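Next up, sample data.

:::
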Amino acid sequence: MSELTPLDKAEAAAKEAATDTVAVQLALAAVELAKAATAQQPAHSPACSHQHKPGRSTGEWLAIGCAVCVGGVGIAFASIAIAIGGISVAILAVVLRSLWRDYQRDVQKGR
């Protein structure tokens, strides 16, 4: 009964081949490396290692808000000034056109 059947021989050969393959050895090495890496890490590591800048204070935010408001009022006044200037130029053009027509009419009549 010491003789092995062909099925037993094939099973033993398959087990030996499975344990001796390079792929299995690499996988086992990767698992061992991962275990070693997690064992070396400290228990509590910070999420990031860079220094955070402190936030703006209330006074700084108020100053920024005031600057934006003053700038907005300045832009509003500048827009109003441009509109008034445009209206003035339009009125001037209409008046000059009327004067030019009157002058041309007087020249044609011989005055």
